[in-house]
Structure formats: C-alpha cells, structure tokens
Amino acid sequence: MKALLRGGINGETDFEMTPQRKFAYDADFKLKAINHPKEHGNRSATREFNINESMVSKWRKQEDDLRLAKKMQKSFHSNKARWPQLEDRLDRWIFKQRAAGRSFSYVAVQIKAKEMANEMDINDFKAKPSWCFRFMKQRQLSIRTRATVSQQLPADYEEKLANFRSYCKSKISEKIYSLTTSSTWTKSPSPLICR
C-alpha cells in the first residue's frame, strides 16, 4: 500500500492508503532479477526491473528452487502437511480400500481421518471438507465410482446357447407347420420374425 499525502483543513495533512496492485512474476523473470544484482547490486536490480528490494532478496533465497522450476511457474507455495503421519496413514488406508475393491466417499475419508486423529491423540484436527479436498488433491487421489462387474458366463455357455437356439428353431417350425395345416386361416396372420 502506498501512502497518499493530501492537504487537509487548516493546513493539516491527511494520510490515505491507496491499494497497490500486486504482480505475479514467473520464474524466468525472477532469475533475471536475481542475476542482475550479482554484477550491479540489489538496488540496481530494483530500479532496472521496477520491483521491491525485499523481493530480490527473497528470490535469492529461493534461487535453487527457481532454477528447477518451469520458466512460467509463478508461485512456490509450500503445501507441507500439518499432520504428515496422519496423512500417510490415511493414504495407506485408502490404498488398501481400493486394493480390496471397496468404494468410499469424501465423508468416509473424513470420518476415518477423525478416527485416526483420535487414535494418535491429535486434538486440534477437525477433518473438515476443505481439508479433505486439499488432502486428496495433494496426494493426487480421487473418489472413483465403482464400476459394475458383469455376471460371469458359465463354462458351458456355448453349449447352452446352441441348445437354446435349436429349441427355438424347433418351436418355430412346429408353429409354422401347425399354421399351414390348420383349416382356419385368417386373412392377416401375425408376422413371425426369425433371426
């Protein structure tokens, strides 16, 4: 925020804070801003790139991460888990559930996380939905609907299918024979579809 100096009543001065726009800089820009002070100094970099000196010193501390990052990456949020042992245990539980073919929901994850937190004597853990979504996203997990597994075909299904077809053909031929030999023939017989 910048302070804006205004003339007030009776020669008094008022300070008013005007909002300053925040910029997000990509890793490539940050690296250029870091390399410039090595030759010319931090203040020269602030004038050259129109940035704050504290930003340059902060970026110098992040230099190793910046070199490893993608050129267009803008932020380096450290999403460190507050309860890493709990999250590791919960991750293993989810893996076991999936391996056993069981489905679960976000609510089930929250309930299990709260149970585990109580077992581990973690009192300040709330297991809120926002925590659950972040946990699932950080661990690259998703709630998948369980696919329905079709019924397994019997071992002799081909034989049974052939028997059924022959039965149908015999019944159809009996029906056709009985229609041709019967004396009561209607003008519009019902169509007989055979495939």
Cα separation of the termini? 81 Å
Number of helices: 8
Order of strands in the sheet with most strands = 1-2
Largest sheet: 2 strands, antiparallel
- Helix/strand order, N-terminal first: EEHHHHHHHH
- Please give the radius of gyration in angstroms: 37 Å
Shape: elongated
Spans of at least 5 consecutive residues whose pLDDT stays below 50 are none
Helix content class: 40-55%
Tell me the fraction of residues in β-strands, as a range: 5-15%
Q: Got a strand count?
A: 2
Output the structural class: mainly alpha
Overall pLDDT metric: 77
Structure description:
The chain has 195 residues and is mostly helical. Helices cover 52% and strands 6% of the residues. The chain has 8 helices and 2 strands. Strands 1-2 form a two-stranded antiparallel sheet. Strand 1 and strand 2 form a beta hairpin. Helix 1 packs across helix 2 (42-49) and helix 5 (84-99) crosses helix 6. The longest helix has 25 residues, at 157-181. The model has no long low-confidence stretch (mean pLDDT 77).
Brief summary of the model shown:
The protein has 195 residues and is mainly alpha-helical. 52% of the residues lie in helices and 6% in strands.
Features of this protein?
195 residues, mainly alpha, two-stranded antiparallel ribbon, 8 helices, 2 strands, 52% helix
Q: Secondary structure elements and their pairing?
A:
Blueprint: E1 2-7, E2 13-18, H1 27-40, H2 42-49, H3 53-61, H4 63-68, H5 84-99, H6 106-119, H7 129-138, H8 157-181
Antiparallel strand pairs: 1-2
